[in-house]
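ok so I'm stuck.
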Amino acid sequence: MAHFGYHASHEQFKPSQLLQYAQAAYHAGFERISSSDHFHPWSVQQGESGFAWSWLGAAMQAVPLSFGVVCAPGQRYHPAIIAQAAATLTEMFPNRFWLALGSGQALNEKITGDRWPAKIERNVRLKECADVIRALWTGKTVTHYGFVRVEEAKLYTRPEIPPLIIGAAITPETAEWLGGWADGLITISHPYDKLKEIVDAFRRGGGKRKPMYLKVQLSYAEDEETALRGAYEQWRTNIFQSPVLADLRSPQQFDAMAKFVKPEDMYEYVRISADPQRHIEWLQQYVELGFTEIYLHNVNKEQQRFIQVFGEQVLPTLVEERQIVLQV
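replied:
not stuck anymore, here's the structure
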């Protein structure tokens, strides 16, 4: 059964604003919170990028929901530090935190000045990081020499139950690979046919009985024109194919690429509508695909209205349908 969460986009809002939005989402009936983890925003116009790990500690104290974050260990973050950070949050807030790992984008990771590896090497590095993190959570002293190097690292503060490691994928190939070793999958709301390919690939690769999370890019506003304009202004830099998203190195490069995007192009990549019922129909499709946690990212800047309207008109319908299914 699916639960519905609010996505906190650090690229678009100051951390103090996101804390207020997370609190408002909780009171409106959202059941989960997910967080991005960027060093740079996707565009100069977005203009923010707070440190997610500082925010998570404050937000989890202020809002009694489960939280998750997507990060990319191996270059900007050493895996032992991610293991320590996740262990600390989970010790303070048991059973309320999940950690998603991805291979990352040069936009954030290239700041170290190190070489930006090809995708195949980044995947090997990612699996090494996951193995290191899991070993540290068991209390082992870890020494590892590979694409990442660890010498005699041991975590002394650990939770009784470690968090899930969710694998992040935006292509079927990566999803199938993750199915064999990740505890679950997180992806984004591609067009339906491609999303089904990702789901099928993850299950085929070993993820058949594992949870699947989805971040839904949507744009809701008081009218269709405003919803489209908000999506275009804030999210047109984010609709490119995986190799482009992974290899561009600065917000300015993303802005240059987005000059070729037309407003009508946004409909293929963002669920844009001023009709709450239309959003309900889209979300029902994702539930039918088997996603267990669905995080709603309203990509325009009008967060308060989105939270209020979805809390009043969208979430109650979806929760009621879930209860009916459970009774049956």
